Amino acid sequence: MRKTLHLCLSSHDEVMYRSEADLVMGFNCLALAALATESRLLAEGFITTHNHKLVQTDDYKVLARMDRYAYTRYFNSKYSRKGRLGEKEVFSLEIEGTYHMQTALNYVIRQALHHGLTSTPFEYPHCSANSYFRKELGKKDQVELCDAWHRYKYLPYGRSLPESYKIASNGLILREQVIDTAYVEQVYITPRNFLFQMNRITDEKTIKEQQAENNLPPVTLDSIEKGVQDFDVRAALVSEQGRVNKSFLTDLELCHIIDDILLPRYLKESEGNSIYLLSRTKRAAMGNDIWAKARDSFGQRPQALFSGKRVTTAQIKRCLAL
Question: Are 83 and 136 found together in one domain?
Fold first, then answer.
């Protein structure tokens, strides 16, 4: 029997997506898994340490297994890594009822906002926020497409995509082809309500609306992010107001510094280009170097490498898989 589920795959001790290309491949793996299992993909969002998706599927474990396997194979091959990627179990939460559905959609689509990455959901390219009510909200349909000869580069190994599905020049399978936008738009009813929900501040009313609908536990930000270790609800509620702290590097910015600038100093060209080729001791040494440089950058000796931005020790550890 097909159920509506929120799924979350998280990895608190290392980043799962080290670049924009990884985030694109992450969605492509999910899209292909949804097509293969005839699942309905309603919403999704990817950030460096985890992803959320709202799906309707007959067997979420098969969907999750196909998705994880394809992306892990890509990631391990690209970065000379071995083993499982992410937590052992995919977190799942069953959704039932219109208000439960709308609340879950809100939280999944607004993931980047809650994690302080952008001031609105629409700024963030790695989520489905810009897939709904495209005509009414003035979204452009003209996208530069990938040529037919290079489509295979953007798909997981051994997987193919029907030619009727288009791939953008950056490698992304166009979200609107895979996500059931019509179904989601029926949940929100109007573009005006959709915009309201995307800017809505979490309050007791969202809980009361769900409680009036049925006896199931209400969907909350805490329950949606339960699969993410060390999630700070209070910080997320502050970020929900659109306050982006630009004094800190993002994980993608730090991974770029590590992979493209610092790593060549630790590895010879013939040895490859991945932090996973370094011993834990050498990665720790790189982490200490990053911490010292970042501290100087924010203090009296600014360095262009960090653009005067801060990093945290937890961020350094996950970007170096320590």
Answer: yes
Shared domain for 63 and 171, answered yes or no, is yes
Taking the chain (322 residues) in consecutive chunks of 10 residues, what is each chunk's mean pLDDT? 92 92 97 96 96 96 96 96 92 93 96 94 96 92 84 87 92 95 97 95 89 88 86 87 86 94 81 88 92 67 69 93 94
The pLDDT of residue 215 is 86
The pLDDT tens digits of the residues spanning 264-322 come to 888 876 677 899 999 999 999 999 988 887 776 555 554 567 777 889 999 999 999 99
Q: Structural domain tally of the chain?
A: 2
Residue 203, pLDDT score: 87
Please say which residue of 239, 273, 296 terminates a domain.
Answer: 239
Whether residue 142 lies inside any domain: the answer is yes
Q: Are residues 273 and 228 in the same domain?
A: no
Q: Domain residues for 229?
A: 3-239
Residue 57 domain flag: yes
- The reported pLDDT for the residue numbered 302 is 47
Q: Provide CB contacts within 8 A for 65, sequence distance 6+.
A: none
CA-to-CA distance for 174 and 24, rounded, in angstroms? 10
| Residue 77 pLDDT | 95
> C-alpha 215: how far from its chain's center?
31
Domain final position from 207, 239, 271: 239
Would you say residue 137 lies in a domain? Answer: yes
Q: What is the CATH number of the domain that holds 30?
A: 3.30.70.1290
